[in-house]
Amino acid sequence: MHTELPAAPRYAVVSFDLDGTLLDTAAEIAEAVNRALDEQHLPRLPAAELTLLIGHGARRLLQDVLARQAATDLQAGEPAQIDTVLAGFERHYAALIGTSSLPYPGAAEALLRLRGAGVRLACVTNKQQLPAQRLLQHHGLLPAFELLIGGDTLAHKKPHASVLQHVAAALQVPLSQVAHVGDSATDVMAARNAGVAAWAVPWGYNGGKPIAHAAPDLLFDSLAAVASHVLGDVAVDPPARPQPG
Predict the structure, then answer these.
(1) What is the rounded CA–CA span in Å between residue 133 and residue 130?
(2) What is the DSSP string of 151-199?
């Protein structure tokens, strides 16, 4: 009796961004920022405004926050030193991890499907590695990943070409067999710079701009669709390019 074997996955490695792609973490991050501002007697910022600044790592986030404070709040005086505010943020964020963050729909199931089919998974984030590890562990997603790269793991962070190139080298697969999934232009640029497939999801934190403007190779409407595409269950058309004007 002839049994047809399942088709091999289209990609050997799929890399996922963390904040805004797998997990909705904006509320926790915003609250940690505001508690750090409280300690410096600086005004809090709305969570929606802080969400627009997420995606480049904690130091860049706090630099942007303090720049806004200096530009808009004449009562704040001179901005506090970035290292002081950053230390406060890191302390408060450590206490807040897992208190309000949630996986996006289908995250655990998609990762399980991919791993079960032999696809190797990496998580590549600009969040520092230790809080990223704790966050994934809290939500039960850490065991799915063979490799976790944080913003402080390597000499550079996304969108530098070396980050995803490191993933390919560490897992000993050609760049042509790697796809990266993210929610922001930073993720699309990181993939393009490294020479891997640039995929995106339309939710998350892209500075308030539609991710289609970053022109990813493929745009998925769910994490389940990512898994289905990799495993050859469905084909996904490239996203329509935004019209100028």
Answers:
(1) 5
(2) TTTSSS-TTSHHHHHHHHHHHT--GGGEEEEESSHHHHHHHHHHTSEEE
* Mean pLDDT, range 36-55, rounded to an integer: 93
Q: What angle do CA 184, 189, 190 make, to 5 degrees?
A: 95
Name the residues annotated as catalytic.
Answer: 17
Are 198 and 217 in contact by the 8 Å Cβ rule? The answer is yes
- Write down the CATH superfamily of domain 13-25+103-230: HAD superfamily/HAD-like (3.40.50.1000)
Q: Largest alpha-carbon pair distance within the chain? A: 80
Q: Bridge partners of 201?
A: none
With a threshold of 0.85, does the pTM exceed it? yes
CATH 3.40.50.1000 residue ranges of the chain are: 13-25+103-230
3-state class of 203 per DSSP? coil
- Residue 125 and residue 159 in contact, taking contact as beta carbons nearer than 8 Å: no
- Give the per-residue pLDDT at 243: 53
Report the phi/psi class of residue 157: left, alpha or beta, with left for phi > 0 and alpha for psi in -120 to 50: beta
- Cα dist from 120 to 14, 15, 123, 135, 164, whole Å: 6, 8, 11, 20, 14
CATH of domain 26-96: 1.10.150.240
Is the CB of residue 217 less than 8 Å from the CB of residue 178? no
Residues 28 and 38 sit within 8 Å (Cβ to Cβ):
no
